[in-house]
Design a protein that fits this description.
Elements: H1 3-8, H2 10-13, H3 15-33, H4 40-66, H5 74-101, H6 107-133, H7 140-143, H8 170-181, H9 200-205, H10 222-227, H11 246-257
The structure holds heme C.
Heme C binds near residues 186, 192, 193 and 209.
C-alpha cells in the first residue's frame, strides 16, 4: 500500500464526521422535545466516533496535501485550516460532554462549541467539495450558457502532437535557469518560503506549503504555476527581477511533464 493511496482515503473518510455530527445534533434536538431518546452516555460514544473519524480524515488529508499532490489554491488553505478546527472541536465536545456527565455545568459552552462546529464543518466541507468537483456556486448554473446550439464556431479539435518533445535534461536545461533566476532567494543564501531550489533533492522536498513539483503534472506543480503568473501578480516568481522567457517556461513545463527526472 503506498502513501498516495492513504491520501485518497481522505474524501472517503470525510463522510463519517459529516454523517455523525448532524446525527448528534439531531438527537439533541429530539431529546429537547421528547426526553431520553438516547442515554446521555450515548453522546459520549458518538463524539468518540466523530473525533476518531475526524482525526483520521485530517491525517489522510495531510498526506493528500504533502504527498499525493492535491492542487494548491487559497481555497485549499482555508479548507485545511477548517479541517483541523473541526477535528479539534470534536475532541473539545467529547471532553465537554464527559465533564457534563460528571455533573459539571458546562452545557452553554458545549452548545456554543457544537454550533461553531456545525458551521465550520459545513463551510469546510463545501470548500472541499469545490476542490474535488469544481465551483458549486448555485448561481453559476444561471450564468453558464448551457445552450450551445447557436454557436457558429466549429469545435476545435486538438491534434495529438506527432512530434515527441525532446527530452529535457535537469542538469543541462533546468539547473542553469534556476541558478540564474531563483538561487538569490531559494538556496543556501536564503530560503524564502522555506524552499531551496539548488539541488534536485531540495526541489523535490518542496517548501513551506509542501511539494512544488508534482511529477508528470506541470499544471498542478506550484513551481510551474508561479512562473507563469502575470508580472503584477504578487505570487509571481521570481518575485523580483526579470521573469522567465517562454522557452525557459516551456523547458520547465516539459521537464516536469516528462517525470521531473534527475537526468
Ligand atoms: C527575490 C526573491 C525571490 C526570487 C528571486 C524567487 N523567489 Fe520564490 N519565493 C520568494 C518568497 C519571498 C517566497 C515566499 C512567499 C510566497 O510564497 O510568495 C517564495 C516562494 C516560492 C514558492 C512557494 C513555496 C511554498 O512552498 O510556499 C515557489 C514554488 C517559488 N518561490 C518558486 C520560485 C522559482 C521557481 C523561482 C525562480 C524562477 C523563484 N521562486 C525566485 C522569493 C523569491
Amino acid at each position: 500500500m503506498n502513501i498516495e493511496f492513504l491520501g485518497k482515503l481522505h474524501p472517503f473518510m470525510v463522510h463519517f464526521p459529516i454523517g455523525i455530527i448532524p446525527i448528534i445534533v439531531f438527537f439533541h434536538l429530539i431529546t429537547y422535545y421528547k426526553k431520553d431518546l438516547i442515554k446521555p452516555e450515548g453522546y459520549f460514544y458518538l463524539w468518540c466516533l466523530a473525533s476518531i473519524s475526524a482525526l483520521l480524515t485530517i491525517g489522510f488529508g495531510w498526506i493528500n496535501l504533502n504527498y499525493a499532490g492535491a492542487p494548491i489554491s487559497p481555497k485549499e488553505d482555508l479548507h485545511e485550516s477548517l479541517g483541523y478546527f473541526v477535528a479539534f472541536l470534536c475532541v473539545v465536545n467529547l471532553v465537554l460532554w464527559k465533564l457534563i456527565l460528571q455533573e459539571k455545568k458546562l452545557k452553554n459552552a458545549y452548545y456554543i462549541s457544537v454550533a461553531t462546529l456545525v458551521i465550520s464543518l459545513s463551510y469546510g466541507g463545501h470548500l472541499g467539495a469545490e476542490l474535488t468537483h469544481g465551483s458549486l456556486n448555485p448561481f453559476d448554473f444561471f450564468s453558464t450558457p448551457n445552450h450551445k446550439t447557436h454557436s457558429t464556431t466549429p469545435p476545435t479539435i486538438t491534434q495529438p502532437s506527432k512530434i515527441t518533445k525532446p527530452t529535457v535534461s535537469f542538469k543541462e536545461n533546468i539547473e542553469p535557469i534556476l541558478q540564474e533566476y531563483c538561487y538569490d532567494c531559494h538556496s543556501d543564501k536564503k530560503q524564502k518560503g522555506r524552499l531551496r531550489l539548488d539541488t534536485y533533492e531540495f526541489i523535490l522536498a518542496g517548501g513551506k506549503n509542501g511539494k512544488v513539483v508534482i511529477s508528470k503534472n506541470a499544471q498542478k506543480s506550484e513551481l510551474f504555476g508561479r512562473i507563469i503568473l502575470p508580472e503584477d501578480d504578487e505570487d509571481v516568481m521570481p518575485s523580483k527581477g526579470d521573469l522567465l522567457n517562454n522557452s525557459q517556461i516551456e523547458l520547465i513545463k516539459n521537464w516536469i511533464n516528462q517525470g521531473a527526472k534527475n537526468n
